[in-house]
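Re: Re: token formats

Sure, here are both.
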Amino acid sequence: MKIALPDTQGRLADYTLTGTPIAQAVLPANPARIVYSAAHVVADPFTASDPSGRAAVDWDRTMAFRRYLAGLGLGIAEAMDTAQRGMGLDWPGALELIRRTKAELPEALVGNGCGTDHLDPSDARTLDDVIRAYLEQVEAIQAVGGRIVLMASRALARVATRPEDYLHVYAQVLSACDQPVILHWLGEMFDPALAGYWGGSDFDATLETVLVVIEQNLARVDGIKMSLLDKDKEITLRRRLPAGVKMYTGDDFNYPELIEGDDQGFSHALLGIFDPLAPAAAYAVNRLAEGDRAGFRAALDPTVPLARTIFRAPTQYYKTGVVFLAWLNGFQDHFIMLNGHQAMRPLPYFTEVFRRSDACGLLRDPELAVRRMKALLAVHGA
């Protein structure tokens, strides 16, 4: 099967698809690694609202995608950055998403993003403002029986002046959590407003702050998700975590190596890239359970060039690539996103994602993918 794809000057050349769709597998109840997919939401393309207005979500398609992930045995990281949390999806929309997922999939492994995004950072004056905002979301999520992924706070980054401020806020918030939570260390490449989080810019110093937060609240912490796109930093923290505290990799560049691990430990996964890579993740972790490390790497290593393309700088727009692939693969009938984010990447980005997705077997219906890629090319005048 062929398709004519343009280069950066608009010159067309035939591309022949060569990929074989990844073999299907389902993770068991006790997999070799805990795997969360940070799932996207499907926008309603028929809303009369402007993209800059209130988010309009196609709930049927959004829930159908979550059933698909749960059917593969994957956990769902709900209302996180991949769902355009804070970039189209506001807190009321996020809470509705959390409620619907809990009602639709009551037995599924779900962690729910809990933050302070309903508090405009410019309105935060004190640490108590931040604590109240966190506790409002903690209470709402726990009221529906949801478990928490405690996300980084732009408001906290704005008002905190020293590491001790983070220790105080996290102690207050964690004391209100009724189940152990997953902390989230999100780097500024994902959100520039989080620069200096944990009270400084030096990694070694901020690492110590994070470890104190965990050690002072051990009974309330299940693990930590680290999203710095730096495998060495993740391994450094992983080796120093107290016994029983899990590392969940959020490194969308180096996940095969980090999940496989070494003789001193391994990372579980909570990844945005495991939205489009869900079948590869399920198959690979099953191979790991069988002791087939080579098979694990053979399944995941070829996906890394695709992940690095989707998450290239500016990294916060990676959602555009995630939803583009969902459209190519038939999980939605359109390529429209909350807040108009389908326009946040140029055409060469989409052609590269198409090629790399084919190369690693992630186009589950190549004929459909080709038809839809041609439609996108036509919109761009190619």
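Second one below.
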Amino acid sequence: MSSTPQPVPTTVQQTEKSRFSLKKILLLIAIALVMLFSLAPVLWQLLTSFKVNEDIAAVPTVYLPTRFTFSHYIELFTRRPFWRYIFNSAFVSITSTALALAIGAPAAYALARLRPWGEGVILASVLIVTLFPGILLFLGLLEIIQALRLGNNYLALIIPYTAINLPLTILVLRSFFQQLPKDLEDSARVDGYNTFQLLWQIVLPMTLPALVTTGILTFIFAWNEFIFALTFITREEMKTIPVAAAQLGGATVFEIPYGSIAAATVVGTLPLVFLVLFFQRRIVQGLTAGAVKG
């Protein structure tokens, strides 16, 4: 004897729909609050860079200005060689990122596939170096820079940035290499590929999202680094954006050029924003693949 299903009361359906809509509304509110909390400093700097000096120094604070000016950006590039600072940051960041990937990718592949002797000790050492605070390396690096006479030289920044980013590059890429199917590599070896050709022509193209994600993390660190750039570079024409922005001065020693500093931070942040937006799809692919494989 079969029993006919009882219809669900309308009140129960309405209650479930109201609960679902309430959860959705609360989730949207939480997302909006997190976005506001994260973007508020950026928005404040952006608005400050377009404020006139009277609104910047006004009491009470002018949050939404009605008068806008581009004078802070004009002064940034006329009073100081800011284009040169941008070039310095770009050159150091791109070079250190390329070196970190060029050295880290083969090392990660060797740890993932070749199984060298002492692999556990090597991985433990890499992990310890990753956890080691970079600021503790400052005095030792300063002695090395002085001994090698690398002061006021781009290598004084490129070499430390590459060395600091190498452990993270190796660990991230190794996890991706381990998830690649070995059958494809075995087939390539049968076709006559050596280890270098296998890595360059087959493995690296398959891990392009991971390379992009790791490269952007390395680039952001090198672009924003301040302590090493402040100490190892003293020549005005070789300074990077963080150091140049921190050393902006006003017309007198008692004036703090808040507008120019805000404009400098906006100019220094825009390349990172464009970089992330340009490689957005690759970054999402790399993070998604890493999350699934992890």
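Residues 290-294 have pLDDT under 50 and may be disordered. The two ends are 51 Å apart (CA to CA).
- S.
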